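Troubleshooting: if your tokenizer reports a length mismatch, compare against these two reference records.
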Amino acid sequence: MKRRTPVSEIMSKDIIALRRSDTLERAEILFKRHNIRHIPVVSRESIIGMLSYTDLLRISFADATDDENSIDTIVYNMFTIEQVMTKNLVSVSSSTTIKEVAEILAKNEFHALPVVDDSILVGIVTTTDLINYLLKQY
């Protein structure tokens, strides 16, 4: 196992992102369509928050149906993305080592971290990315 491997080697670079003006209904559709659990919220190229599928579950019945036109529309219209997303984020740079990322995720019990270089969102790294990296080592 390489000790100094940067997170840029395993992070997702094809970022699916939301804007603060998007709806929670759109967020649910993206979560289900792309089978993901975390979506960065951006203003231009800078990250301003992170929305997790768990955030949606807290306010809705999002997991109760696979129908993209779910019954949650009324609930979703009561909240904005900005009200539901996590705002005070911990981020890492693309040169942060995979080991450092694992330590941050484990210590803080996060499941995803935005990867930011020069205030620009360049990727996202998740616990799944870490597990897949470890599996390739064996």
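Reference record two:
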Amino acid sequence: MLENLNYSLFSLINATPDSASWMITLATFIAKDLINIVPLLAVALWLWGPRGQVSAQRQLVIKIAIALVVSLGVSWLMGNLFPHDRPFASHIGYNFLHHAADDSFPSDHGTVIFTFALAFLCWHRLWSGTLLMVLATAIAWSRVYLGVHWPLDMLGGLLAGAIGCLSALMIWQKFGAALYRSLQQGYRFCFALPIRKGWVRD
């Protein structure tokens, strides 16, 4: 039944040769490039921001990093336990994005962006988490639309992200303070010159 739902949703979303070329182009940009917001935003949060908020921002970045490590580990485990061919590898639907014919479940893109969005929902602001969740949904849609993933691959990524964030919270409660101090010291040592010049925050 779940597999039938997966197929039905895929057929509903997947683009066809009759789809507008601008939609294919937009979906390709979303599928390939929008994920770059993750490292860019993480770096920006660590290096810059209002002086009174930098500490909280850096703690958020560390929590996100922990969540990503856990969620990608969970994703790898799920993929090995429940391998699933990509739609084009099974000769189903239409493919508009070049991709290796490896296992599709769960989506790595989905895991990363949903982990990121859930982390902001849990530990930052409702508005930022909601905005990132909209972006995450757009990325999930685009990769199904272009034929490289099934809808349930994205649901698997969301589940892995939720497990990652929950695990990160528990790890942070035990080791967060010590981890933050260590990383802060390492950062101050490695970035001593940019900090002294005022290019980045202390």
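Descriptive notes for reference record two:
- Residues 35-197 form one domain.
- The mean pLDDT is 94.
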